[in-house]
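User: Hi! I have a protein structure encoded as tokens and I'd like to know what sequence might fold into it. I'm fairly new to this, so please keep things simple.
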């Protein structure tokens, strides 16, 4: 038996469903206790595109592989999602001209190319992650083919690969000490095992279907008769929260319900003994998720931009206007930046950002969202500031997709780094000189952040309890405390000097509280200029820039 296009298509769809069904299990393997865009959700959303029209796609093996890879690359979210999409992109490259069905040897060659593409995208690959699971699985398969010289036993090949992936996953704690300390296997590797499980299940004749999948229904409504601007609340926000023991039992989260009611309309709120399920149309999904996290862990998250959806539906009815979303270059340089919070958005607009992509912790934008923002920017060269380490790889892939203008992705891991980069920009300088100057500015920024623990864990020798205040310096947890002020005091001990300090305070923080933190910083750095701005960002009570 050989693999043809339709067989590969069905196996990829089954893999996507397997991943979606296991995303909660994968999320729960996340080691770090800070609120984050969970691995299972990011990987599932990356593959979600193949569960749409692709299920009826017909073509050669090469065409099906290319279609699947394109859908995943555009839907990729987070580092794990990008790595997964690049694995399938490598397969598509290996089979680019494959019109006939592939035997075991050709399948392993395709998977080997996928591993190479995934590794190539990571500057310093860490063993004990999804990359290790991919690589060792494929190496074992290649060795088996050379030893046994069999060509067409696909079921034996995938049984071997699945077992090798599972065995390697169990070894990840030995390769990555932090996994061993936390007593878990790598979450991304677990997601990849789910993918191979789905592919094998389809090959064995019982493809996996998504537990919550619903058939799509066609609508005959005239979306063009309704103006996008008439949509009062832009984001349809849904999530399921697994309650912490403190809130177990029904009707224990009335405060959350009241909070959600104030943020928008179309509220649906279900308070079960172990779960909260909510739906709301709002302009600030970050606030919804941040408040929900107080009551437990986010098990599923779904955020859809209804204005974009409406525009897409209107465009579908009026194809002649579909190109309106791509702006013609009218200037030399433009900026796309990623952030959350009205104050942060206003700040970047004041700094002349052309497009703001709503995203950050708990809400990683997709490759396609970055591409769309770049194409709306009327510039020959567009600088992209991801402002989050989990959005950098997605931005890099978006840059490769855009062909009609130059795209430069700066490695900004935080909002303060993004602000510093934009302040260093000089319209009179060349693109190369600006990139160098902005990168130099980034390196002079130290970012402090105050958030809270969403689960019990241990980092090094520090035991962290759920609900504790956490202090992060350049993304690394350095302290925990019962008060935000104590965390700030502990963090600034590691930063001896400062000339400019900016405090961005987030949702739920009062002006008086922010000024008290600013005063604390001024006493630590008496000669520094200390500024305080309302960022209104979710997740982080304070983000502090020290230069």
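Assistant: Happy to help. Inverse folding works backwards from shape to sequence: for each of the 547 positions I chose a residue that suits the local structure. Here it is:
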């Amino acid at each position: 038996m050989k693999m043809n296009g339709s067989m590969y298509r069905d196996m990829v769809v089954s893999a996507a469903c397997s991943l979606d069904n296991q995303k909660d299990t994968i999320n729960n393997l996340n080691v770090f206790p800070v609120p984050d865009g969970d691995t299972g959700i990011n990987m599932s959303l990356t593959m979600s595109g193949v569960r749409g029209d692709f299920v009826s796609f017909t073509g050669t093996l090469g065409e099906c592989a290319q279609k699947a890879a394109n859908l995943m690359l555009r839907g990729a979210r987070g580092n794990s999602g990008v790595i997964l999409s690049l694995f399938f992109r490598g397969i598509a490259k290996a089979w680019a001209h494959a019109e006939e069905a592939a035997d075991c040897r050709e399948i392993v060659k395709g998977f080997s190319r996928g591993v190479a593409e995934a590794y190539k995208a990571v500057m310093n690959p860490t063993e004990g992650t999804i990359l290790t699971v991919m690589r060792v699985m494929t190496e074992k398969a290649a060795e088996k083919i050379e030893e046994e010289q069999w060509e067409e036993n696909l079921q034996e090949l995938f049984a071997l690969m699945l077992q090798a992936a599972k065995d390697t996953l169990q070894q990840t704690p030995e390769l990555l000490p932090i996994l061993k300390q936390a007593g878990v296997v790598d979450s991304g590797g677990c997601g990849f095992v789910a993918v191979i499980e789905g592919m094998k299940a389809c090959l064995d004749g019982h493809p996996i279907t998504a537990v919550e999948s619903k058939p799509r229904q066609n609508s005959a409504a005239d979306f063009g008769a309704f103006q996008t601007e008439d949509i009062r609340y832009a984001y349809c926000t849904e999530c399921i929260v697994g309650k912490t023991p403190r809130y177990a039992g029904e009707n224990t989260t009335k405060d959350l319900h009241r909070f959600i009611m104030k943020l928008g309309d179309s509220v649906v709120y279900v308070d079960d003994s172990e779960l909260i399920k909510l739906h709301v149309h709002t302009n600030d999904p970050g606030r919804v998720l941040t408040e929900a996290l107080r009551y437990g862990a986010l098990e599923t998250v779904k955020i859809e931009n209804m204005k974009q959806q409406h525009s897409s539906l209107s465009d579908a009815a009026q194809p002649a206007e579909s190109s309106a979303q791509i702006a013609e270059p009218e200037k030399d340089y433009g900026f796309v930046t990623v952030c959350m919070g009205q104050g942060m958005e206003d700040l970047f607009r004041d700094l002349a950002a052309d497009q703001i992509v709503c995203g950050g912790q708990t809400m990683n934008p997709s490759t396609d969202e970055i591409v769309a923002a770049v194409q709306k920017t009327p510039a020959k060269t567009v600088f992209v500031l991801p402002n989050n380490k989990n959005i950098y790889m997605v931005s890099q892939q978006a840059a490769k997709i855009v062909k009609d203008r130059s795209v430069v992705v700066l490695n900004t891991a935080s909002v303060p780094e993004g602000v510093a980069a934009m302040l260093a920009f000089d319209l009179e300088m060349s693109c190369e000189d600006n990139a160098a100057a902005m990168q130099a500015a980034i390196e002079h920024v130290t970012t402090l952040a105050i958030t809270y623990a969403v689960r019990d864990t241990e980092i090094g020798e520090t035991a962290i309890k759920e609900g504790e205040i956490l202090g992060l310096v350049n993304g690394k947890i350095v302290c925990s405390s019962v008060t935000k002020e104590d965390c700030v005091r502990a963090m600034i001990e590691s930063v001896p000097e400062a000339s400019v300090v900016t405090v961005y305070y987030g949702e739920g923080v009062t002006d008086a509280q922010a000024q008290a933190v600013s005063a604390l910083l001024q006493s630590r750095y008496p000669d520094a200029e200390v500024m305080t701005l309302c960022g209104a960002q979710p997740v982080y009570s304070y983000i502090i820039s020290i230069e």
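A useful reference point when you look it over: DSSP finds 20 helices and 16 strands in the chain. Feel free to ask if any position seems puzzling.
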